Amino acid sequence: MAMEAPHQYPGKLTFRVVITCIMAATGGLIFGYDHGVSGGVTSMDSFLKEFFPSVYEQESNVKPSANQYCKFNSQILTLFTSSLYLSALVAGLGASTITRIMGRRATMIVGGLFFVSGTLFNGLADGIWMLIVGRLLLGFGIGCANQSVPIYLSEMAPYKYRGGLNMCFQLSITIGIFVANLFNYYFAKILNGQGWRLSLGLGAIPAVIFVVGSLCLPDSPSSLVARGRHEAARQELVKIRGTTDIEAELKDIITASEALENVKHPWKTLLERKYRPQLVFAVCIPFFQQFTGLNVITFYAPILFRTIGFGPTASLMSAVIIGSFKPVSTLISIFVVDKFGRRTLFLEGGAQMLICQIIMTIAIAVTFGTSGNPGQLPKWYAVVIVGVICVYVAGFAWSWGPLGWLVPSEIFPLEIRPACQSITVGVNMTCTFFIAQFFTAMLCHMKFGLFLFFGGFVVIMTIFIYKLFPETKGVPLEEMHKEWQKHPIWGKFLDAGRADEKDSK
Ligand code: BGC
């Protein structure tokens, strides 16, 4: 079947669009900061002594664990990290309604307010309950921000630059993680062991920037049209595209929003067969992103390093070195994603991560076996492990990291966009929770095999992309549905659905 080429909308990359996207992407900064901060804090002795004395005794050899792999194994300790993702899951689902009815910007403001209150609870905590409540509040913020910011960015960006601009979200996530690693390293040694309060409390700074920034942002043209404000959408399009020649794009947004008017129940609608490709990706992309195993490193690098024999300071320093690879790799991705496309990055990143996972498994297995008693570790060993983890992290940070948020935000048609994005956030948070909560138990039971476990998923996800993902580079959002039709597997699936429908009429 002959297919027409996608529309070429005029318009350029305006200052307004760049500033707007950078501002919105600060939502990622807080997400990243909260991701990065907990691992370091939970490896600080003063923090463990105050809130988790039994883990402290086990880890500091007062009551040693029989197996080196198991010395941080405490479900209460991991609950401190993971509780955030439970509330993010709930908030992500609820946020779809705010995003649809009140706009993307409103959801960002609500998210920012949760962030501010969560950091205050954590920084001032004098009992586990305050720590957990703080993490839950932060989670509500993350659910709201991750639901609204990626779709906002994709809707504001000119389609030619959508990949790069959307990835500013991931760039700020990685900067947030890096800053948290750095703070943990410095704060671990100050304030008589109370430095963790600064680590947790300073998240308030990006949170305030995000609230103020969101208050100043305009709503996206798609969101304005979806709420019947066509004239405001026209004026905003003129400003962000830097041209008055916006009628073609506005017309397509209006057409897309007509489909929205027929959708009374977005959650039910997205189960229709014609939306199956989008639904499959809404679930699989975040699932696979988390089952690359990257967050084992993000959350627990310091714990992992202490497990394999590094000292406390070396562990925190190694986390800083690894953390610095993420923003740099994501920056590279920003510059190449709209040139090489999403598929190339997915496939290359997958291969790179797999090779590193195999090397890590062998390196840890050879030194530790299953007993986990390391003895004196040679220096070259530490350098190899940290080096391989850096290459692995770089592979993630230019592929599944940013694409895990970009791809869902660009493939959902307007009528089901908020609901689908909520699914993506929900699945992401559920899987993040799973890994955050059960990592120490998995390490204790699977030992070095843990890295192969995630390596197996990397193989599956790479084949999945190769077979099922159509390239989305340079395709306007309103034309995306045609890409599924052109795809050899999805095209047949959709045709078969239409034929069935005709027969039943
Ligand atoms: C993921 C996070 C991850 C981060 C690391 C994000 O895209 O959703 O779970 O920690 O990237 O760079």
TrEMBL record:
Record-linked InterPro entries: MFS_dom (IPR020846), MFS_STP/MST-like_plant (IPR044778), MFS_sugar_transport-like (IPR005828), MFS_trans_sf (IPR036259), STP/PLT_plant (IPR045262), Sugar/inositol_transpt (IPR003663), Sugar_transporter_CS (IPR005829)
PROSITE patterns: MFS, SUGAR_TRANSPORT_1, SUGAR_TRANSPORT_2
Domain of life of the native organism: Eukaryota
An example Gene Ontology CC term for this record: membrane
Transmembrane segment boundaries: 13-33, 76-94, 106-125, 165-186, 198-217, 279-303, 315-337, 349-368, 380-407, 419-442, 448-469
Membrane topology: Multi-pass membrane protein
Subcellular locations according to the entry: Membrane
One of the record's GO molecular function terms: symporter activity
Keywords: Membrane, Sugar transport, Symport, Transmembrane, Transmembrane helix, Transport
Domain Major facilitator superfamily (MFS) profile: start-end pairs: 20-473
Pfam families: Sugar_tr (PF00083)
Principal location listed in the UniProt entry: membrane
Family from the record: Belongs to the major facilitator superfamily. Sugar transporter (TC 2.A.1.1) family.
UniProt-listed PANTHER family: MAJOR FACILITATOR, SUGAR TRANSPORTER, MAJOR FACILITATOR SUPERFAMILY-RELATED (PTHR23500:SF588), SOLUTE CARRIER FAMILY 2, FACILITATED GLUCOSE TRANSPORTER (PTHR23500)
Protein name: Major facilitator superfamily (MFS) profile domain-containing protein
Annotated source species: Lotus japonicus
